[in-house]
Design a protein that fits this description.
The complex is a heterodimer of chains A (about 600) and B (about 100). Chain A is built from 30 helices and 15 strands. Chain A has about 600 residues and is an alpha/beta fold. The termini of chain A are far apart. The chains are: A alpha/beta (about 600), B mainly alpha (about 100). At the A-B interface, α10, α11, α12 and α22 of A face α3 and α5 of B.
Chain lengths: ~600, ~100
């Protein structure tokens, strides 16, 4: 079937794909389509370009122009009036669509590294996703994408796992956990109503590698969390993100949201999966056209908070091997999850080494955007993985940690292909491995513990604490709280004064604000660590901006003993100060005595 | 379509190294595929898993849940990873001649 267009035959599929494009154009996409000035800044940012020098067809701007030409011919007036002048060119045949498929799926992982390197703000990945959606709407897509999308539509999860198999696996993991902990109360509660945490996972965890499920369950149990796993709507992955099919995206995300609402859960915790996190937490409400009346959180943040709140104890010496961290594109570049995984790593590993470039500038694992399910492009993928291999090798680490299942597979393939001999793991495995399991688990809700700590006055007697902050209100507040608990207080309002006081007075603890005029907290921190006289003094970093923590991490000195995010309340301050000074044990003895 | 060569013979595999036609599978080929997955020699424990995977696939046309694999072959999960370092999906399934698992693997 074909349609006559300006004297030229157009296939039915091409006609339908164009219709879809017209219905999906929004301001963001149009801005990106017209904004490119062909400056070339994006070219070197792409891992495909770097490994295929001289092949223009990998350059983001060239790839983007394939859709831009269509947009000009069909929508923009310049292309409709002077197509020859602006290089406008539409699609007519099924072969034209196949060519677009090769670009949209086979030459881009939608990692968005070019996007953040574009001075004009052109978001190529966003309209490459739209291009994928146009093609998928007429059935032009890699077979792997089609199979997975079908399973998500029809069975509700991307690996076609049946409900009884899912529940059977959870029961199995709960049994293993009970044996390991020798504790019958260790359970994986299913469909519990009004739970504080509803935990959602990636189907590969249940189908092929449930070790991450038992590790997470162990952490929830040891934290005394009121948690549950849903019997349905548990798949937080979403091939709608990869295929550009917003309807699928909305249907899958909607299943999760509906289940949490039905269970009256307070918070949806998403296991370590980059595209799942982005789809569920960031894009899903738009696709599903739904208001989401509960909190959503990455399990990385949940685990970090358990440690910071003292709900679980960890021993980093159990993870002694050198580790590095790979930022997933979707977690980091698209959702801003930069500092929390690093902070958590510092707490559970002895030897953390940064990879360069990192955070928003990190390179894709090369298996992103659904590439792991498209075997036909595996050759190109592994060639482009040279960039990643070089990056990994330069860290000298033995283990690479990532908070994304897709990256686990992308990195594993890269490591195997380039014979790097590194291990790939996730934060949940490291946290579970570092868990200190008391002989008999004590489940104490965190609020009660906080009250107990505050109620126990004068517990900081004979302790000198130096408070470094340029804000008078914080100085007064910290001084009052710590003094009320018996500590002797010193204060400094700038970096140089802080270092001088620390050298002279040798305090037991320093609370250090990162963001100060003049010498910032990072400078103070490395001076303290470098000077022999102050190198052993515990430091608690105080910051209102998590992104500033890089001022601390990127210094080649031992990491600080603690972090506290502003705003700080009394209980939080005391809990952290006591934890760093290692007073928690004594405190427990006191509370037992007072009982 | 790339080829996989072993003992002077050739079979077609996909870009990820999974064999294209499950019917060309034989024990000699399995041993050769295993080498690429970090398994130098297939022991009885390996064969127990490989044979289970093949039978399951022939019966149902999909790879089994790792739960079923462990239960039916009486192999603890940790042991599966020791036997096949690249895991049940990419390691054991490849050796058993199953197609590449779909989705995020």
């Amino acid at each position: 079937m074909s349609v006559q267009t300006n004297g030229k035959q157009r296939s039915h599929k091409a006609e339908m794909a164009l219709k879809r494009m017209k219905s999906k154009l929004n301001r963001q996409v149009v801005g990106s389509l017209v904004g490119c000035v062909h400056c070339g800044m994006c070219t070197d940012s792409c891992h495909y370009v770097q490994t295929n020098p001289g092949d223009v067809t990998y350059a983001p701007a060239w790839k983007a122009d394939r859709l831009r030409k269509i947009f000009k011919r069909e929508i923009d007036w310049t292309g409709r009036v002077f197509p020859w002048w602006v290089g406008a060119k539409s699609v007519f045949s099924d072969e034209d669509l196949e060519e677009l498929k090769d670009i949209a799926f086979g030459k881009c992982t939608n990692c968005r590294r070019c996007t953040i390197n574009c001075p004009m703000g052109v978001d190529f990945a966003t309209f490459n996703r739209m291009l994928r959606g146009m093609l998928v709407s007429v059935g032009v897509m890699p077979e792997g994408v089609a199979v997975v999308s079908k399973d998500q539509w029809e069975i509700g999860n991307q690996m076609g796992v049946l409900k009884e198999d899912y529940l059977d696996t959870l029961e199995w993991m709960a049994d293993e956990m009970q044996i390991e902990l020798d504790d019958e109360s260790a359970q994986i509660p299913i469909d519990k109503k009004n739970a504080n945490v509803v935990y959602s996972i990636n189907p590969r965890e249940v189908k092929y590698d449930p070790r991450t499920i038992s590790d997470a369950a162990k952490i929830f149990h040891m934290a005394g969390e009121d948690w549950t796993m849903p019997s349905e709507g548990w798949d937080m992955t979403n091939f709608g993100l990869f295929s550009g099919d917003d309807d699928l995206g909305g249907a899958v995300a909607g299943m999760l949201y509906d289940k949490v609402i039905e269970l009256k859960g307070k918070k949806l915790v998403i296991s370590e999966c980059g595209h799942g996190y982005r789809s569920t937490r960031c894009e899903g409400p738009n696709w599903a056209k739904k208001d989401v009346p509960f909190e959503m959180e990455s399990s990385v943040i949940t685990m970090l908070n358990y440690i910071k709140e003292g709900r679980i104890k960890v021993d980093k010496s159990r993870n002694p091997q050198p580790v590095t961290f790979h930022d997933s594109c979707n977690n980091a570049r698209s959702c801003g999850l930069f500092e929390e995984p690093r902070e958590l790593l510092q707490l559970v590993c002895e030897d953390f080494r940064e990879m360069y470039p990192n955070r928003a500038e990190n390179y894709c694992c090369t298996g992103g955007g659904g590439a792991m399910s498209m075997s036909e492009y595996a050759g190109r993928r592994l060639k482009s993985a040279k960039v990643k291999a070089d990056q990994l090798k330069a860290t000298g680490a033995e283990v690479v940690v990532t908070s994304c299942h897709n990256c686990v597979d992308g990195l594993s393939d890269c490591i195997k292909h380039y014979e790097l001999g590194m291990e790939v793991t996730q934060l949940v495995n490291l946290v579970a491995n570092a868990l200190v399991i008391p002989e008999k688990p004590v489940v104490v809700p965190v609020e009660k513990e906080a009250e107990k700590v505050v109620a126990h006055a004068e517990s900081l007697v004979n302790r000198t604490i130096l408070i470094v902050d340029d804000e008078p209100d914080i100085l007064t507040f910290f001084s009052t709280v710590l003094e009320d608990n018996g500590a002797r207080i010193l204060t400094a309002t700038d970096g140089e004064e802080a270092v001088e006081l620390a050298m002279r007075e040798q305090p037991d603890l320093i609370t250090l604000d990162i963001n100060m005029p003049g010498k910032d907290g990072g400078w103070v921190f490395s001076r303290l660590r470098e000077e022999k006289a102050t190198s052993q003094i515990p430091v608690c970093i105080i910051s209102g901006k998590p992104e500033l923590r890089r001022l601390i991490y990127e210094r080649s000195v031992p990491p600080p003993e603690g972090y506290v995010d502003k705003p700080v309340d009394e209980a939080m301050l005391m809990r952290n100060v006591r934890k760093i000074l290692d007073l928690s044990k004594r405190d427990q003895t006191h509370s037992v005595e007072s009982n | 379509m790339p080829d996989f060569e072993y003992n002077g013979k050739t079979v077609s595999v996909d870009e990820d190294g999974f064999i294209e036609d499950p019917d060309v599978w034989n024990e000699e080929l399995a041993a050769a595929l295993a080498k690429g997955e970090g398994v130098d020699a297939l022991t009885d424990e390996h064969w127990n898993i490989v044979n289970y995977l093949r039978n399951y696939y022939q019966q149902f046309g999909i790879a089994p849940m790792v739960r079923k694999l462990c239960k039916e072959t009486k192999t603890p999960l940790k042991r599966v990873y020791e036997l096949f370092p690249s895991g049940p999906a990419k390691g054991a399934c490849k050796v058993a001649g199953l197609p590449k698992p779909t989705g995020c693997v």
